[in-house]
Design brief:
The longest helix is centred in the last third of the chain and has 28 residues. The relative contact order is 0.08. β5 and β6 form a beta hairpin. The chain is built from 21 helices and 11 strands. The protein starts with 7 loop residues before the first helix and ends with a helix. About 50% of the residues lie in helices and about 10% in strands. By secondary structure, it is mainly α. Among the domains are: about 140 residues, Glutamyl-trna Synthetase, Domain 2 (Glutamyl-tRNA Synthetase, domain 2); about 100 residues, Arc Repressor Mutant, subunit A. It has a 3-stranded antiparallel sheet.
RNA sequence: GGCCCCGUCGUCUAACGGUUAGGACAUCACCCUUUCAAGGUGGAGAUUACGGGUUCGAAUCCCGUCGGGGUCACCA
């Protein structure tokens, strides 16, 4: 492995004056972590050097694209804090920014290529193409279009047309080597002879990816094409097109992929991959962005924790790493916990509410799902208050905002249920526990308010009277008050519960103990 | 299969030919403590995929092998 040595010229491209970059998702699915990172790197690059970040929607796959998906992707980008200077909604001087609104542009350029003999109509059917492809593969050769429609006569063309075949426009590839100057990988050579004539215009009239990117990147004056490594081998095709159209090349930079723990391509079966799912699970955009930034990029110092603003400062393309990264959810979880703990409470609460309404929103589409999930959503909103109240006590131990919801739930009035362990703790030294709980109840009832200090004092006295302390004393009290054997410090818990709820819980626990005893005597 | 990219602790990564190969997550131990966490301290963990070169000296440069990934679509 060799780090790309930046010469004078390269340096200029790595740190340009006012770059124009773009993120160009196709609205055929949700925004995945890989796409999010590509968007982030582009965004950081633009922000760092005072450039522009363009959002372009590549919706030429008519079958799979949908406005809903587009909305989901843009919504996730905004959630991450990545905004764009130009785009379908934002407008801008190089629009339209949705490829289906640019069809006439592609056709015009396609005509130009066809008229100059650099492109030709191909009448081959998908089935024919497929079987020829397999023949190449069987011979151990590079599968590619064999160019058989290159020299079609008018008669032959008419014949195919009468058969009802709809032609696609193909680009006439030239041989020779094509060099890609890549900002993160250095110079990469490709053999043009191994690349077949690829499609420019599909038979439905929409442009192919390779054609549309070239046209758009040029017309939108994109200076740096920063994208995933899966596009590296497409680049020679695009370079050939730039040359055929007589256009200047942008800079290219291909960042390596994000892989699953088994080193395969990250996909659904590996767990969470979509940004939206992380939102639902209670991750903060602060954490996700920070973690993703560290996948394939490293600062020049030892820092790991960055705000977006700090990332802008620290980011540079020449510190982008070339080897693929494995997505490590454990580290993300740690980082998320860190942000929950250190961000100010108002912000965390805001994120919690965001999560609650996002979950509700995202399930609105499917009416059945919504119905099924309804009680959960109601609870979430009811819990917003509880979460606010309990955040200071709970944030120390959690990793996601969802933990906040599940953990705070049991502190709601009337939500006391006993875990088997807690029940065990209450029952195992029944007599002593009963004494503890009775005197605790009396003391709390007798004091005007339940402060942490007051509670501590009460516990001290009970301990002195009964000659116990530590775990033996606090364990039963914790079990009675919370129904769990683990949780925040009781000194925090008691004032938060309040006098009435605390008393009611002790009563409930005492009753439960009696019931348990009758149960065991009876059997 | 052809072509292309990549290969440093389990994971993310640092180390412009000269460091006891550094940090973070995870893991282990201890401290703190009414519990679980969090936090603190420390430990273990990498013959830099392997094999050859070049060099006084290689994780770093060159070649080969192996392994992983990408791509070869009328998907993007």
């Amino acid at each position: 492995m060799t780090r790309f040595k930046a010469g004078k010229v390269r340096e200029k491209m790595l740190e340009p004056a006012k770059p124009r970059v773009r993120f160009a998702p196709s609205p055929t699915g949700s925004l995945h972590v890989g796409g999010a990172r590509t968007a982030l790197f582009n965004w950081l690059f633009a922000r760092k050097y005072g450039g522009r970040f363009v959002l372009r929607i590549e919706d030429t796959d008519l079958d799979r694209s949908s406005p809903e998906k587009e909305r989901v992707i843009t919504d996730d980008l905004r959630w991450l804090g990545l905004d764009w200077n130009e785009g379908p909604d934002a407008g801008g001087p190089h629009g339209p920014y949705r490829q289906t609104d640019r069809l006439d542009l592609y056709r015009r350029l396609a005509d130009r290529l066809k008229d100059s003999g650099l492109a030709y109509w191909c009448y081959c059917t998908p089935e024919e193409l497929e079987s020829r492809r397999n023949e190449f593969l069987a011979r151990g050769e590079n599968p590619r279009y064999d160019g058989r429609c290159r020299g079609l006569t008018q008669d032959q063309a008419h014949h195919f047309q009468r058969e009802g075949r709809r032609p696609a426009l193909r680009f006439r590839m030239q041989g020779g080597t094509i060099q890609v100057h890549d900002l993160v990988r250095g110079d990469v050579d490709f053999d043009g002879d191994l690349i077949g004539d690829f499609v420019l215009l599909k038979s439905d009239g929409t442009p192919s990816y390779n054609f549309a990117v070239v046209v758009d990147d040029h017309m939108m004056e994109i200076s740096h094409v920063i994208r995933g490594e899966e596009h590296l081998t497409n680049t020679p095709r695009q370079i050939a097109l730039y040359q055929a159209l007589g256009l200047a090349l942008p800079e290219f930079g291909h960042i390596s992929m994000i892989l699953a723990p088994d080193r395969s391509k990250l996909s659904k079966r590996h767990g969470t991959t979509a940004v939206g799912e992380y939102r639902e699970r209670g991750f903060l955009p602060e954490a996700l962005v920070n973690y993703i930034a560290l996948l394939g990029w490293a600062p020049s110092d030892d820092r790991e924790l960055f705000t977006l603003e700090e990332l802008i400062q620290a980011f540079s393309l020449d510190r982008v790493v070339r080897n693929p990264a494995i997505f490590d959810e454990k580290k993300l979880l740690w980082m998320n916990g860190h942000y929950i703990r250190t961000l100010d409470e108002g912000r965390v609460l805001e994120r919690f509410r965001e999560m609650a309404s996002f979950i509700q929103e995202s399930h609105k589409q499917a009416e059945a799902t919504k119905k099924r999930m309804a009680p959960f959503f109601d609870d979430l909103h009811k819990q917003a208050e509880a979460v606010k109240k309990w955040l200071p006590a709970l944030r120390e131990k959690i990793h996601t905002l969802s933990d906040l919801a599940t953990l705070s739930e049991r502190y709601l009035p009337g939500h006391l249920t006993f875990s088997p362990e807690a029940l065990q703790t209450l029952v195992e030294n029944r007599d002593v526990t009963a004494k503890i709980l009775h005197s605790l109840s009396d003391s709390i009832a007798g004091s005007p308010e339940t402060s942490g200090e007051g509670f501590k004092q009460i516990m001290k006295e009970i301990g002195k009277t009964l000659q116990i302390g530590g775990k033996a004393l606090y364990g039963p009290v914790r079990s009675a008050l919370t129904g769990e054997i683990h949780g925040p410090e009781l000194v925090q818990v008691v004032p938060l519960l309040g006098k009435d709820e605390a008393l009611s819980r002790i009563r409930t626990a005492l009753q439960k103990m009696t019931k348990q005893e009758e149960l065991s005597n009876g059997s």
